Amino acid sequence: EVVLTQSPGTLSLSPGERATLSCRASQSVSSNFLAWYQKKPGQAPRVLIHGASSRATGIPDRFSGSGSGADFTLTISRLEPEDFAVYYCQQYGSSPVFGQGTNLEIK
Amino acid sequence: QVQLVQSGAEVKKPGSSVKVSCKISGDTFKIHTIAWVRQAPGQGLEWVGGFIPIFGARNYAQKFQGRVTITTDESTTAAYMELNSLTSGDTAIYYCAQANLNGLPLFWGQGTLVTVSS
């Protein structure tokens, strides 16, 4: 079973700054079935990126995903106040699993 | 617009079972997959299981094997997740999601809080 390890655990930044979140898999993610989600308290998860680098419908272009194989990155180019949340990566497909999350907090 | 509406909060005793429903509207239910994800208090997202036709039968996370059953009813466009032998560790918000053909959860229900307490 693939294990996804996200880093850092907590990221403290200010609005307007750039955020870089990492997701490392214990083995190669098949077909680049790697997604990123945003999770806020009291809300359901919201998919941001799928296929490692494709933005989901309606997601602002300040969100971008990159990577392949076992190393993936979510970048938020200029943080808006509403972007502060917990972010999860997920391998989907035949053996779904989530990373443990990165808490993006206001500095 | 796809909408998923889940059943209400549940309080259960340890050792009992819970069945959460998920009513889907606004799309062709039968060609899509259903996934169930949970989040325990203060914890991260955890895959419970799903029905992903292109990958075969129902797909349950290893830690829930033998304890969880996911079913779908195309006549009522609803999905169900039943979890047995509940412990306090199963206290969580349970989400259903409709996924695309590759199993990517796209549309989510509002979540159902299941509390297990004696």
Computed CA radius of gyration of chain B, to the nearest angstrom: 13 Å
| Biggest beta sheet summary of chain B | 7 strands, mixed
Low confidence ranges of chain B: none
Largest pleated sheet of chain A: 7 strands, mixed
Report the β-strand fraction of chain A as a percent range.
Answer: over 45%
Biggest interface pair, counts? A-B, 25 and 25 residues
Helix content of chain A: under 10%
What is the β-strand count of chain A? Answer: 11
- Average of per-residue pLDDT values of chain A: 96
- Beta-strand content of chain B: over 45%
Please mark out the parts of chain A with pLDDT under 50 across 5 or more consecutive residues, or reply none. Answer: none
Question: Care to count the β-strands of chain B?
Answer: 11
Order of helices and strands of chain B: EEEEEEEEEEE
Shape of chain A: globular
Q: Which radius of gyration of chain A do the C-alpha atoms yield? A: 13 Å
The gross shape of chain B turns out to be globular
Short key terms for the protein model shown above:
heterodimer, A: 107 residues, mainly beta, 7-stranded mixed sheet, 4-stranded antiparallel sheet, B: 118 residues, 11 strands, globular
Structure description:
The complex is a heterodimer of chains A (107) and B (118). Helices cover 0% and strands 50% of the residues of chain A. Chain A is mainly beta and 107 residues long. In chain A, the strands form two sheets. In chain A, strands 2, 4, 5, 6, 9, 10 and 11 form a seven-stranded mixed beta sheet that branches. A four-stranded antiparallel beta sheet of chain A has the order 1-3-8-7, with no helix packed on it. In chain B, strands 2, 4, 5, 6, 9, 10 and 11 form a seven-stranded mixed beta sheet that branches. A four-stranded antiparallel beta sheet of chain B has the order 1-3-8-7, with no helix packed on it. Chain B has strands at residues 3-6, 10-12, 18-25, 33-39, 45-51, 58-60, 68-73, 78-83, 92-99, 105-108, 112-116. The termini of chain B are far apart. Chain B is 0% helix and 52% strand. The interface between A and B is medium-sized, with 25 and 25 residues.
